[in-house]
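Entry 14. Ran structure prediction on the chain below.
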Amino acid sequence: MNYIKHTLLSLLVMVALIACNQNTNDTDPEPDPSDDTESPVISLAASETNFRSPGTLTLTATATDNESVSKVEFFEGDVLSDIRLSNSRVLTLEPLQDNKIGEATTEPFTLELPIENGSDIIRTFRARAVDEAGNVGSSLAVTVAVNIELGSLSIRAFAATFNGTFEPDIVVVGPNGFEERITNGNDFLNDLEFGVYTITPSEVVGLDVVANVVLEAETETLELTTNNTFANLDILYRTRPDTGKLWIPVRDERKLIALSPGNLGSTANPAIAIGTGADSGPNAVAFDANGNLWMTDSNGSLVMFTPEQLASSGTPTPTITIEDTGFLPLSVGLAFDAEGNLWLASSGTDSVIRYRASDLSSSGAPTPDVLSVPSMDRPFGLAFDALGNLWVSNRDANTVIMFPKADLEFLNNIPAAVTLTTGSLPEGLAFDKDGHLWVANLGSDTLLRFPVQGLSTGTVAPDITLRNNNGSLESPTGLAFDNAGKLYVTNVTTKTLAIFETSALVASGSPAARIVAGLGDTDVAMPAFNLPPDTLPLSR
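Output, structure tokens:
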């Protein structure tokens, strides 16, 4: 009996030991989130509570939980959506979801907001912390006062001495990266931060019925402050002095003269006279797209003057001089193509040469491209039509020839596509606004018009011939049209400028012209408008 009792006792002890050992090896089970009913605790702070100037507001939430905080949501507004009963049966206020402005899922729980403007405004912010079990804790409200004083700026742009039309181009730059472009004559900028503003007008083109001009204005600065919240600024555009004028070379007097078409009397009264040097008699001029004047001279040089050098009378030193490489002596006609390449009629070598735009950036002796064909015989005047085709007057052959734009990239052995028969000694060429080609015949005292409709065929005859009337055409050489379509002609024999109204250019005859005397020696005077007429490729 004792043996049986002892055995049973041993078995009971063994079972108890096994059970203890099993409990020791087992791991604790994962807590069930549904068992967590404790809401997070959250508070909210603002980096600044009273904004009197634009800046950045940083909202910082401090959140704790018995387990962990999964995210913090930020809300703006002072309205609460409802009251819900949480699992712990604690009443919790919930912000409207539509008012949510951001959230953070890692510490630090922050949100940055730009404060740019506002007057007498109170903004209210709250934060809400959410734990893994979905328990929610809401912060008390934080209020931020916004009372930012802002300024205003009124800008008026006008041109006191210009009667045409123009569109301003003004850039206003201010604090904190502010930038705005103004392209009308009157503008009002509101809600501007206090600080310094720079108002920079760009050069613009003024459109005139006779000759376009460049308008320029000074850069202005002003400051908006609490004592100066409003500023009224007038931007005065002025005509750049070298523009809106007809420039004429006067070779034997070694100068260039600039005439204002609106102020021409019976005797030339140059607005500007530029001396070209004792040994440098100008032959022809042309303006590039930047307003620089290029001139060939009797010295065999090609020189450039900037707009600043042309602003008033004087004898400036050329900014750029292109030295002769065998083609510049007796070079007469000049013309820029749409790509900025400069073409010259080299009468002394029976060729037309081209300087690439890249050749003209500095002084030197670049080698030009050469266009030479058997039909060239003392080329004199040059002109590009609206399609970019090059027209050349052959003074001693009494012809005008044309080279298509497509053939002008590579000049070797390209034939003339069109040949027109003219009067005696054709020199100046010009296209009118309708695309008709006009030719000045120095030897026969005539002007010829070749109609645009037949220029591509090469068989067209002139449809209008103008003849001399009381000195209107006496050895005519240079031609230039203005915006209105009037034709300006320089006469070598009488040393005059003849101006033909558009009504005189519609039929053959001997129409009267307005004569401006006193130009000086106008031999080989190939004039040019600055700015070029709207119909030319280089019009800006």
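The first strand starts at residue 41 and ends at 46. Will compare against last week's run tomorrow.
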